[in-house]
C-alpha cells in the first residue's frame, strides 16, 4: 500500500498529470470538462503567465503591486492574515489589512510584514480607509470581515470608492454575504472577481434567480449568474474551479488535495488580488500597443493564475504534511509552486 502511495506521488511530480485524488466529478467525464475550453491546460497557463511582470532591479517599492485586504474582526484573524500574506508571498510589494481594533494586534503578531490598520470599527472608518485608497492597486474584500451591520456598511462605501478608482476588487467570504444582500453593489463592474464556494454560490444564485442552482449544470448556472450581474468574473470553487465572465469559461482541475482545512480560499483570494493588478496592467499595455483584444479578459486570467497557484500549493503541502496539512503549510509552498507553474 505504502509503495502504491509513493508511486502515485512520484508520478504526480512528473506532471502535467491527472489530479491525485479524483472525487465525484461535477462533470460526467474529463472529456466533457476539456470541451469547455478551446485551449489545453499548458496553453492556458502560458497565456495566463504572460501577465506576470519580470523581476527587475530598476523598479521601486510598490511597482509590483500594493494590495489591501478589508477584513479581520474579533472572531476571524486568520483569514485576513492568510489573504494578505499570500498576496505578499506571491510577489506584491506592500500588503495592507484594514481590520477592527481588537483584531489588529493579533494580526500584527502573526507577521511584521503586513501593514495593519485598526480602523474597521472606528467612527470614521470610511474616511480612514479612503485616505489610503489612492495608494492601492487592488482590494480583497471579505476574508474574516464578519457580518456586523456597521462594518458591512463601511465595506460597501469602500467598494463604491474602489469602483470610482477602477480598482480590481476580489470579493470573498463575508464580502459575498454583503453582495448577496445587495447585488447592485457590484452589478456591471467588470473589474470585480467573486470567489464563492459551493454554499456561497448557491446563496447568491438563489437571491438573484429565486431558486437553487441546478447542480447538474454548473457551467450553465455560473454563466447565468455572471450575465445577470453584468459580466463580473466569478470563480465557482470546488473539485473543479470554474471561472467565467458570462461569455467565456475556464476550468482548473489539476491537483489540489483531499484536505479541506479552512483558509485555502483566503490564499486564493489574496493571491488573486495581486494577479488581478498584474493582469489589468498587462491588458492596459496591450491596448496601448494597439494589439487586438485578448481572448480572455484580465479578470479571468488573474483567476486562473490564482486557482493554479492555490491548488499546486495544496498538492505540495499535502505531500509533506498529509492529514496534518493546514493553510500555513500551503503558504510555505507559494514560492516553489509559483516557480514550478510560472517560470
Ligand atoms: N482561520 C480563520 O480565521 C478563517 C476564517 N474564515 C472566515 O470565516 C468567516 C465565515 O466563513 P465560512 O465560510 O465559514 O461561513 P459560511 O459562508 O457561513 O459557511 C459556512 C456554512 O457553509 C457551508 N459550507 C461551507 N463550505 C461549503 C462547501 N464547500 N460545500 C457545501 N457547504 C459548504 C457549511 O455547511 P455545513 O458543513 O455546516 O453543513 C456552513 O453551514 C469568513 O469571514 C471567512 O473568511 C475562513 O476563511 C476560514 C479560516
Ligand atoms: N473538493 C475539492 N478538491 C480539490 N480542491 C478543492 C476542492 N474544494 C475546494 N478546493 C480548492 O480549495 C480552494 C478553496 O476552496 P474552498 O471551497 O475551500 O473555499 P472556502 O470555503 O471559501 O475557503 P475558506 O476556508 O478560506 O473560507 C480552491 O482553490 C479550490 O480549488
UniProtKB/TrEMBL annotation:
<dbReference type="InterPro" id="IPR029056">
    <property type="entry name" value="Ribokinase-like"/>
</dbReference>
<keyword id="KW-0597">Phosphoprotein</keyword>
<protein>
    <recommendedName>
        <fullName>ATP-dependent (S)-NAD(P)H-hydrate dehydratase</fullName>
        <ecNumber>4.2.1.93</ecNumber>
    </recommendedName>
</protein>
<comment type="function">
    <text>Catalyzes the dehydration of the S-form of NAD(P)HX at the expense of ATP, which is converted to ADP. Together with NAD(P)HX epimerase, which catalyzes the epimerization of the S- and R-forms, the enzyme allows the repair of both epimers of NAD(P)HX, a damaged form of NAD(P)H that is a result of enzymatic or heat-dependent hydration.</text>
</comment>
<dbReference type="GO" id="GO:0047453">
    <property type="term" value="F:ATP-dependent NAD(P)H-hydrate dehydratase activity"/>
</dbReference>
<feature type="binding site">
    <location>
        <position position="266"/>
    </location>
    <ligand>
        <name>(6S)-NADPHX</name>
    </ligand>
</feature>
<dbReference type="GO" id="GO:0005524">
    <property type="term" value="F:ATP binding"/>
</dbReference>
<keyword id="KW-0520">NAD</keyword>
<dbReference type="GO" id="GO:0110051">
    <property type="term" value="P:metabolite repair"/>
</dbReference>
<feature type="binding site">
    <location>
        <position position="144"/>
    </location>
    <ligand>
        <name>(6S)-NADPHX</name>
    </ligand>
</feature>
<feature type="binding site">
    <location>
        <begin position="237"/>
        <end position="241"/>
    </location>
    <ligand>
        <name>ATP</name>
    </ligand>
</feature>
<keyword id="KW-0456">Lyase</keyword>
<keyword id="KW-0547">Nucleotide-binding</keyword>
<keyword id="KW-0521">NADP</keyword>
<comment type="similarity">
    <text>Belongs to the NnrD/CARKD family.</text>
</comment>
<feature type="domain" description="YjeF C-terminal">
    <location>
        <begin position="44"/>
        <end position="341"/>
    </location>
</feature>
<keyword id="KW-0067">ATP-binding</keyword>
<dbReference type="InterPro" id="IPR000631">
    <property type="entry name" value="CARKD"/>
</dbReference>
<feature type="binding site">
    <location>
        <begin position="256"/>
        <end position="265"/>
    </location>
    <ligand>
        <name>ATP</name>
    </ligand>
</feature>
<dbReference type="GO" id="GO:0046496">
    <property type="term" value="P:nicotinamide nucleotide metabolic process"/>
</dbReference>
<feature type="binding site">
    <location>
        <begin position="197"/>
        <end position="203"/>
    </location>
    <ligand>
        <name>(6S)-NADPHX</name>
    </ligand>
</feature>
<dbReference type="Pfam" id="PF01256">
    <property type="entry name" value="Carb_kinase"/>
</dbReference>
Amino acid at each position: 500500500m505504502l509503495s502504491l502511495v509513493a508511486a502515485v506521488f512520484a508520478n504526480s511530480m512528473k506532471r502535467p498529470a491527472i489530479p491525485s485524488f479524483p472525487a465525484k466529478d461535477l462533470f460526467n467525464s474529463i472529456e466533457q470538462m476539456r470541451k469547455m475550453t478551446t485551449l489545453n491546460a499548458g496553453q492556458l497557463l502560458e497565456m495566463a503567465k504572460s501577465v506576470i511582470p519580470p523581476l527587475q532591479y530598476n523598479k521601486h517599492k510598490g511597482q509590483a503591486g500594493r494590495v489591501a485586504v478589508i477584513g479581520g474582526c474579533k472572531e476571524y484573524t486568520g483569514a485576513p492574515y492568510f489573504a494578505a500574506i499570500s498576496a505578499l508571498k506571491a510577489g506584491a510589494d506592500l500588503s495592507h489589512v484594514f481590520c477592527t481594533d481588537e483584531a489588529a494586534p493579533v494580526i500584527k503578531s502573526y507577521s511584521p510584514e503586513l501593514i495593519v490598520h485598526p480602523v474597521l470599527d472606528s467612527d470614521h472608518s470610511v474616511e480612514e480607509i479612503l485616505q489610503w485608497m489612492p495608494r492601492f492597486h487592488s482590494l480583497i474584500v471579505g476574508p474574516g470581515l464578519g457580518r456586523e451591520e456597521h462594518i458591512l456598511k463601511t465595506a460597501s462605501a469602500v467598494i463604491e470608492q474602489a469602483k470610482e478608482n477602477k480598482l480590481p476588487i476580489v470579493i470573498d467570504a463575508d464580502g459575498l454575504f454583503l453582495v448577496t444582500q445587495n447585488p447592485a453593489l457590484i452589478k456591471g463592474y467588470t473589474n470585480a472577481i467573486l470567489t464563492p464556494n459551493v454554499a456561497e454560490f448557491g446563496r447568491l444564485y438563489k437571491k438573484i434567480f429565486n431558486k437553487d442552482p441546478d447542480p447538474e449544470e454548473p457551467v450553465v448556472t455560473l454563466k447565468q449568474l455572471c450575465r445577470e450581474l453584468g459580466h463580473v468574473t466569478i470563480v465557482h470553487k470546488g473539485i473543479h474551479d470554474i471561472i467565467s465572465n458570462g461569455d467565456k469559461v475556464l476550468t482548473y482541475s489539476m491537483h489540489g488535495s483531499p484536505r479541506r482545512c479552512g483558509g485555502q480560499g483566503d490564499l486564493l483570494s489574496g493571491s488573486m488580488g495581486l494577479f488581478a493588478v498584474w493582469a489589468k496592467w498587462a491588458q492596459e499595455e496591450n491596448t496601448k500597443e494597439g494589439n487586438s483584444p485578448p481572448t480572455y479578459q484580465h479578470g479571468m486570467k488573474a483567476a486562473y493564475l490564482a486557482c493554479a497557484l492555490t491548488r499546486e500549493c495544496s498538492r505540495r503541502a499535502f505531500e509533506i504534511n498529509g492529514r496534518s496539512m493546514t493553510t500555513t503549510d500551503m503558504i510555505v509552498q507559494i514560492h516553489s509552486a509559483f516557480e514550478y507553474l510560472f517560470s
